[in-house]
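Lab notebook, bench 4. Still working through the backlog of constructs that have no structural model yet. Next entry is a single chain of 110 residues. Request: give me the structure tokens for it.
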Amino acid sequence: MDVLKKLKASSLMETLVATVLIIIVFMIASLTLNNILFGSIRKEAGKINTHLNELHYNYLHSKIEVPYYETFEDWEVSIEQSKEKDGILFIEALYIEIDKRLERQIRTLE
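Model written out:
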């Protein structure tokens, strides 16, 4: 009569505890992946910030002329003189893939 033997089953409380533990593990994993993704985007922003500093330096030493446009990796970079205010330089970088924009206003010494 082994066929009619009673099977062991888990209680409702054990099932709920296991479900909650699985949800917690998945939440931690998704938060970790999210942190890694935004860390890589911040790393990309670090490269463009360095490049914008170089462009500002080059402008101050008359190595580039305004208006200036270029593509740096996946960033569209533009430098323009302000039309309304004299002595203000606008530097803008647009990340094409995720539509992220970095803007700077720099007061020139002219």
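Notes after review: Residues 19 and 25 are 10 Å apart (CA to CA). The chain has a mean pLDDT of 83. Flag for follow-up if needed.
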